Batch of 4 targets.
Target 1
Amino acid sequence: MNWKRLGSRWVIVPGGMALAIVLWLAYVGTHNHGVIEGRVVDAAGRPVAGAAVLLFERGFVTHQEKGRATTDADGRFRFDDNQSHSIQLEAESPELGRSDRRIVRLMFAAQDTRLIDPLRFPVAK
Amino acid sequence: MSRTSNSRLALRHATLVVIAILMLVPFYWVIKTAITNENIYAYPPSLLPREPHLYNFVDVWYLIPFPRYLLNSIIVSAMAVAGNVVFNAMAGYALTQRFPGRKAVLALFLSCMLIPFQATIIPAYLITAKLGLLNTYFGLAFPMLSTIVCIFVFKAAFEAVPKSLIDAARLDGLPEWRIIVRVLLPLSKPAIATNVILTFIWSWNNFLWPLLITRDPNMQTLPLGLARFLSYMEDTTGALYAFAVMVLAPSILVFLMAQKEFIRGLTSGATKG
């Protein structure tokens, strides 16, 4: 076998690309369970229990509601079945109203994600 | 080296660097727009990307069947490249031989180069339809399977090979096709690279022919997908430019990988064709 040929750019470039694609697909395959986790807090930063969190999925032109979750005593929520790469999250509560809608863009469809900043209700009027 | 010639060289290099930067500005601008959501008409324009991200590429991948278009383009381009290397090598070799009517064939080939593809598109379509190749990969690659320019590139490269080598191969009992495969093609790598690059780029960027002969959206290639994407998402500049980058990247990559042989092949064609 001519080992010098392995050093050719015709081997290194496609080979490097193939390796990068395989690694990326391996990463995607182990992180695409559709889990979205986060917290909901009020204007003072206290966790809000029992708030509904709405998940909107991006279509071509509009966003459509695809799921709902309810926050626990620590204000945490979790979705297990997100299939999209671009979603919006919004919290609503009878007492506190609606939070701002948070745009969440992912690097691939159904990427497991934990929101760093919680969904925050505005100051009650 | 004298001081004068040193300063001349530096000046020449500086000029070339400035020209190279000017040439690269459009590429930079396309990539910058693709990794931001900036409006290209915004004034004053920002030279550096603000808050760069890769989400536009993700949108392109998922909002249209990009992987399917990519696969179609790869299959069609691979068929066109393979067809060109095989058929053009055979035609180029034939044109280096002596046979009655050779000059007439050369004149016919040269005159055919003057006819634009748009003028022959109706007969090309009718022939493809008669053969039952509409909406097929082979039909998409069909008019690109051999190009006259590339035949002449092979002809020039084969003429540069010493005739004694071919005579020796013939004396050893090699048939004509093995002379091409075993003797001429290994000595004509720049011509092969030129064929690969030109055919790949022409086939990859081809818009009109795939538009005419594809009925099924699943058979569309990337340039058609780009037009479709533009019609859906006319206001998303960032995603549109991301799509353009994804369409252009493979052909630029192939060119960069084979540019040395490509330039050698073109020069050889220019001086001996």
Target 2
Amino acid sequence: MATAIRRNSSTGDHEVIFRKLKVASNGVGSLGNTIYTVPFPDISPYEVTEARLPKVAACYIDSDSEFVEFEFTYQYFDPRPNQYIDNDWEVAVARCRFANPSSNFDSISPDWFNDPEVEYIEDHEFADIQPDIVYDPTTGDIYVVLVVYIAPGTTNLRVIEAARDSEDLDVDWGTADPAQSPIPEHNSFHPRIDVGQVNYGDYQNNDWLVGIAYTGWDYTRGWHIRLNYWKTTETTPDDFTKNDVGWDDPMFALFPAGVPSIDIGPPGSDHAAIVWMQAKSDDWANATVMYADTKHSYLPAGQQIGYGRMHPDSTWGSTCSAFPSVAVHEYDDTYESSISFLITTDYVTGKWTPTAAHVLTYNNLAVVTFSNNLTLLGVDDAEGKWDSGTTVEHYFGMTTALTVYENNYWMVWSGFDSSDAGGPTSVWGAYGNTN
Amino acid sequence: MRNFIMALVALLMFVSCGKLDPVHPELCGSDLDRAGMTFQTAVEIFSGDADYPTVDADNCEVINSIGSGSEGTPWEDSSGNH
């Protein structure tokens, strides 16, 4: 499943769309025929005309009834005046079911139900942006993490959980107090969330954990990567100070890092991984991709996570790598990670190449290599200048995404933001497999 | 003599792979020779005015029965597509 933002050709408004990425039994990838539109919240008499940064999560439920459920989250521009500011960004979620998964997916329309859930942010006094979403596969509960502006120039993170009723299988987002679930790391951005079974930190009993990776700030580190986690069986904590971990790569300790992606592997893998962007200078004039997982142990005890740099891009050279995504998957009777990212040797004028690579290990260390490059074919719009000033707080959502099913890959990517040239216009993808 | 040469070769291999920057190690050939990823030609998923073309992908990898927590079964359409 891929989701993106598109401008409606008739109205000119932005809309959230999604499409199925297929994997045939003969190992050939193809696109679903239908492009679906995700509904916006009903804020009549106003209208939602702009949305950004959609994320999607999926869950197959075969309890008393059988269906595939998709939950989308995105930020939309709310034109309604409220108590504090006239208009701002808010976050919505929207959910649909395909009730008969064994039928032809493309021949049925999504059964939208429960209008986009905006109650918990309606009339919120703060702007909400950059949401991410995930299912808890043991319960069908849903978690959303988002960024909240609590004061000019100051942000916080919030986690909102929807519980699923075991009888009617519906979910209830409840009412979230604006103070719910603050993570005490001001100026936090780009949170990504996942749920999985992994031993980490204080939890060493094969517990199901919720993990959040995000870009955090403090006065000693500046922008850096942080991680927070708790058991799914615990109430979503109001105070995240217990398991909040941050770290720096010693080689780049003086420079900012951020924009992570996190994946906790399938049950039994005991493997979780994070990738992020590491600046090579204060102003983000150049960056590389960093990787860390729970299986390798370079960092000192207590942080309990190992990491590796891009190979051979751990230099100060002109190669710039950006916007990574990570997927943990089975390979050769074990589990490993693959990542996707954009790379360029000319970050001044663009020429970005979507790339996918395995993460190899050497002497118990993780190394991201270029041994399995994805060759870019026929895409011209992934060009653009490096807009370093918006790297951390950007709304444009330049990104790649990688998803893996058995030995099948789908990598998707957006064009690079080239605002001066009018912006990119397409989203691309490539199917691949492990040979 | 033969044993000496073999030992020397082994030593050289050990040294060459043993120059280990703990974060940025030299890679041995066996690591690089592993199976790779093969991709088909890229396709345009969303064309047109895809302003702010953020993308996200999900493969339903956490599909499970409620309460089971086990890895589930992906759906399949009438053409055998997952």
Target 3
Amino acid sequence: MISALITIPLVGALLASIAPQNRARTVALAFNFLAALLALTLWRNFDSGAGGLQFVERYAWIPAIGAEYLLGIDGFSLLLVLLTSLVVPFALLARPMSRGFCALMLLTQAALYGTFTAHNFILWFLFFEMSLIPSFLLIKLWGGEERDRAAVKFFVYTFLGSVAMLLAFLGIYLVHGTFDFATLATLGKTGLLTGNAAWLAFAGIFLGLAVKTALFPFHTWLPDAYENAPVGATMVLSGLLSKMGVYGFVRLLLPMFPNEMQAIAPWLLALAVCSILFSALAAWAQSDLKRMVAYLSITHLGYCMLGVFSIGASPSQSLVETQAALTGVMMQVFNHGITAAALFYFVGLLEQRRGSRGIADFGGLMQRTPLLCGWMSVAVFSFLGLPGLNGFIGEFLIFKGSFALAAAATSVAVFGLLITAVALLRGMQALFSGPLPENGGAFDDLRRGELTVVVPVSVLMLAIGIAPQWVFNIFNATVVQMARALA
Amino acid sequence: MTGAPLLEIAVVLLGLTVLLVEAFATTIDKRSLAIASIVGLAAVLVATFFLPSPPPAEATGFWSFYTADSLAIFFKRFALVTTILVLIMMIDYAPIVRQTIHGATHQAGLGEFFAIPLFTCAGLMWMASAVDFVMIFVSLEVVTMSFYVLVAFTRRNPASLEAGVKYLILSALSTGFLVYGITWIFGVTGETNLARITAALSAANVERMPALFGMALVLVALGFKIAAVPFQIWVPDVYQGAPTPVTAYLSVGSKAAGFVVLLRVLEPFFILPEMQKLLVVVAALTLIYGNVAALPQTNLKRLLAYSSIAHAGYLLVGVVSLAGSAVGFYLVSYLLMTMLSFAVLIIVSAQTGDRIEDFNGLSSRAPFLSFAMLIAMASLAGIPFTAGFLGKFFIFDAAIRQHQTMLVVVGVITVACGFYYYLKVVRAMYWEPAATTGAVPVSQFSRVTIGALIAAIIFLGVYPQPVLNALRSQPVTASATR
């Protein structure tokens, strides 16, 4: 089942790359439809009461180095698989693009499915790296003015992080002789490694994941990459690729290095807080709409990191709070994936219409394009965490959990919410109200095709905001199991 | 003993036929001879898969010098594939040979250029089967002799000539060491057969010092073949001066043959613990020298020469760690990535040159070639999911198991050096502005070959099992690892 899920986008990429230029997107969407159907089937047959891996596929791959073809889905994996199936077609619908673009998007999708379902390091790393090359090309070939620099920066940062992570895992392998995540997590309870070796390995893995999640101070690639990537690629980068890092933190670092996490938790929490506050402040100062949303993305990923590190700080203190924080992290991952993609979608629409995306280039949109403003506000308010929309749930749960586990850091981090709100509302005010700019040409409201994309996504945001229980049900059992394993 | 020896006989007959045809049919396009040789070698390669299972090696008697175990068959295939690839490169290189040889017709000399590698190939195949010092010596000489001719083949080119003379003198010297070493070992044990030498050395009353002396001399000769420090002095000059396909052949074929022999002699040699210590030192020095000396190189051919020394170092780590299959896999990955980089080098340097700066901006002029070079360099540097990565991984894994911590530490540091100088080439191709414009023409044949090499590097990087299976259950490793 899972292999098929990974294979479908791969086949799609192949077909999209040889399809006629104007049909490529249709082909890509058709294969996304198939993948989504399969993902829904997985969800339907998924036993949400069980916390462990399901639909396991396990084959020998390279026995000599302990590499196994091991795929499986637990609640967290399923959540991210569903998110991937949702965001990629959304990103493909953002703008009609050439066949190369579609093929690379599908390649990224396959890599994402693989990353979220592989449970052996070698296989996981294969997919992890596989996502890097298509996204590099997406930025380099279809990006904005500074695409070369942004693509190289993105590549070098993430590649160096990956090398560090690989070396760390090779070190662990040479000591323990296994790449299996479950085995390593079990070994992690009593300390995977000792002394300096443990710290080196921890640092290597931490670096790899921190770069991917754009944790302060490893975040500087992100604004450039997001700003210069074509809008569809930005949606996938922010909605999905950054989640690979969070996924890695929860799946690898928390269970494998609990002692190390706990020992330097104050510093890690400080990094998360810096990530939240500084990037929120930076967003406030931006004059470019896309760059502003990019910085706000770092803030939101910072909330996830706050949750993860607060669990690491005192895992055994309270099972309930750990569960709340973990639930919050997963919820935030899901919500931010949808909301960030939606917001970038709207930014893309505005850019397409005006030909620029400086905040000062717009104004008075409310008069001309009420539909666009209305639906965009849903995404904006979700992004700043208004109760009743999906963004609120995750942030609330993270703060609830992390306040009990790490009160000081959380108290400071809460100000991030305020700054985010100020930055976003300031931007929206400049966009929606005020006078029309002098050079403002004809400006269409949302077209029917765009509405059919926007409305379902907004409804979904509202649905999660009002009744989030169905999302919780996906990963609840997994959270309980994870929290117990960490305690 | 039937079956396996027929392979070498077939290759030699093929070589003789090509020579005769080239002598009498003066009007044909000589490149058709290369095609014929490739087809013939491919047929022999196919035949290796249909050999009757070999009888157990004879301890005494006529065939005791020859073995057809899985290691031998594996390296026979290795030699055949290498030679086929070299011949394909030679077709691309033919115009340059023509420029430097002034003969009666514009095709003078080309026929020999295509025929001699066939004899080298036969020598390499014999070497893979040699389990007797006399056989090792004879087959090594067959290979070396043919290389004398090949290295100096573009004889109007002073660099090639210089390379030829250097190779001739130093190679003859190393042959002297080999024979002298063999006589010492023979003097101690009274045997030339490796298995019987092992038995003789295991006896309690054997004189160790003379045996050690003889082995050290043999090691000198083998060190010359595999370009191990301190016997690597000839490598950069010869590699740079020789015609590029011959350089590729030297760095892959000659080196692989040296390692097969080294694996074969390990069993008798490692009875004396001093030999292992000696090899550890040689391996560490080779790693450090090859990688550090490669750092400042500006000529790609010379860079590849130093990188070939560096890879000899990694291979020696595998040899010291008694990991026959790791060495075998590494050699296969080395074959693929070295051939790929030389294939691209030949095509590009025919238009511009072989300095690294001649590759500036290649990505805009020849995207396919620069992608191929990218894969080759990535694999040589050891980036994951290329064959080169797994090769290094298997070697280091084996070294850790044998508690060769010092070698692993040196190895990891030198891998970092490798990243720098291999990625220098990538940087030139993708980030530097192009000095000249215009596409680089690639023949269809080369395009297919390069594509196949890229595919093989990535395939083995993700799924190395076919090669590992072919290397499994071989007597040398089985007995050596225990």
Target 4
Amino acid sequence: MSMGDRPYKIVIGLEVHVQLLTESKLFCGCSTKFGAPPNTQTCPVCIGMPGVLPVMNRKAFELAVKTGLALNGEIARFSKWDRKNYYYPDLPKGYQISQYDLPICRGGYLDIPAEDGEGTRRIGIIRVHLEEDAGKSMHDEKAGRADSRIDLNRAGTPLLEIVTKPDLHSPTEAKTFLTELKLLLNYLEVSDCNMQEGSLRVDANINLHIPTDDGGHVATPIVEVKNMNSFRAVERALTYEAQRQYEAFLETGHKLGDVPKQTRGWDEDAQITRPQRSKEESSDYRYFPEPDLVPVTITEEELERIRATLGELPAEIRRRLQTTYQITAYDSDVIVNQGRAFVDYYCRLAQGCGDGKMAANWVQQDVLRTLNERQWTIAQFPVSADNLAELLRKVRAGELDTAKARMVFAEMVEQRCSAAEAVQRLGIVQVDEGELRRLCEELVAANPRVVAEVKAGKDKAIGSLVGQAKKRNPNVNPARVKEICLELIQRQA
Amino acid sequence: MTLTRQEIEKVAFLARLILTPEELDEMTGQLGRVLEYMALLNEVDTEGVEPLAHAVEFANVFREDHVEKSLDREVALANAPHRDDECYLVPAVLGDV
């Protein structure tokens, strides 16, 4: 991996937490719905009352297995639960139920688009495990309150923690990884990965390898960066942090192992990372097996049943679109990023109109623009792929030029009708080929000067004939008029 | 196997217990004796025995993903030492949240 313009190599590993798309919490039946009034989605289990027993949510387990399989990991045939002990006001039990030594999935990888646009880079996954979320603490500094307010609605919500190997070598690559992971989890229907609602959170471990004269390198102390609230913030925070570490190294000479691991928080307003107080003096969480939950085992049959629900994943779909419909990597990327329903729409359109490239242009420009303008999903889009294919076939057959096709498209969206009906509504009459030829012959005969110019090599002059034709009959296809006139003029020569 | 006073201090800190010097001495002795007793287990030959993940030899107890009724907020907050209309109140949490 190149260092680019930097005098050092960046080494980044990510810890991503995603909220699973379950209806209810990990160990109790409280709703996981976002946005409810504080403390209205809690029960004795998730607020840690004595004497209660957690019971595992089957769906959460299956979603975790599904993710592990999609990340090409090894699914544990036997996994168990552990208590991670620490005191924090948003953690009512004084421990978090997590997985320590037997996570649901170990190993695996995710292939991400390479930075140079050529091929892919394989990013290793260390582990994927399930755990419960904590509550939320709110402190209103402006009100000058002495107290923090605790909302436990989120406590006990199922989270999947995905830990990567330190395989990422630039802040941009970290962002690309997150984008690809989010797309994958969306396709799997494992998580909506909505960062605003906290259903995707990411921490990063970063340090530098600085080359030494003997051809080796020194490593700077590893820093954990937290508090990054968007993928762009991740990119910016890591760019800042890498440069900060380089400057700190030049100043202090501290190497990995010289100082304890530091935690820093990204300050979005100041665009810098600042040192944070860590939760424990040491990271002594005194993990021990959770006595209230029994272990989980999975058979080969169950694994295969879950594997069968994966469906076609983003990387495979991109490849398929490129080979089947002859479209570019860029086009396939845009289409796949819109989600499975959009891909299905595109494929049906491409098959129906018989031109993958043309279909790709139409969905990316006209369809996507309309969806964005109207805030629609593809499922709400009133023009079916079959109806749009009918329109594109008319364009391919020369019955409509692109400008007219756009008008017809707009009419189809407004009237929720077929292409034929929209053509009729707009009063677009298909001009008979014989009639068109007669019109062109008349124009060529009546405009000797234009004809002379064209013969002299000024092809542009033909525009005047096209203009006159449109005036005489607004329904003519300008491209066809141009073709016929040129043909007639050339025949005269 | 005995415990040092420093280890007891650390465990007390992690458990958020404030112990007097006398209590620290007492705990060092008591906890040390508990560990010594448990160390008896080390005499058992466990060669070839699978580690036990749970005392009950049982696995896969699941519930289906259905939402059940939660507590009324008033009930949930009833035992809180400090609260307002919506939330538990705790001493200010600042810094990394």
